[in-house]
TrEMBL record:
The protein's name in its UniProt record: DUF223 domain-containing protein
Organism of origin: Brassica cretica (Mustard)
CDD domains reported for this sequence: RPA1_DBD_A_like (cd04480)
Top-level division of the source organism's lineage: Eukaryota
Length: 83
């Protein structure tokens, strides 16, 4: 159980799966807003199990205890919500 997050990279037209374990969810809830642009630092990259695969990308970003989310307010690209 946990929170699934989709990261959009408009520069390379790619989507990557992110996962926040249930035990860490409360820690990140205030930083998670629909349509927000965030910088993610100190995370784990793992192969995405075919059992839980929701997109075609072979890897996922796993949030671990040192993971930091910072909202990007200036200099951020505009996300096309239709993509």
């Amino acid at each position: 159980m946990g929170i699934t997050v989709l990261f959009l990279d408009e520069k390379v037209n790619s989507v990557i799966h992110g996962f926040i374990p249930a035990g860490r969810a409360n820690h990140y809830m205030s930083s998670l807003k629909a349509g927000s642009i965030v910088k993610v630092d100190r995370f784990e990259v793992a192969r995405c199990s075919s059992m839980y695969k929701i997109i075609d990308h072979p890897f996922l970003i796993r949030f671990i205890s040192p993971t930091i989310l910072d909202e990007v307010i200036t200099g951020a690209l505009e996300i096309n919500l239709q993509s």
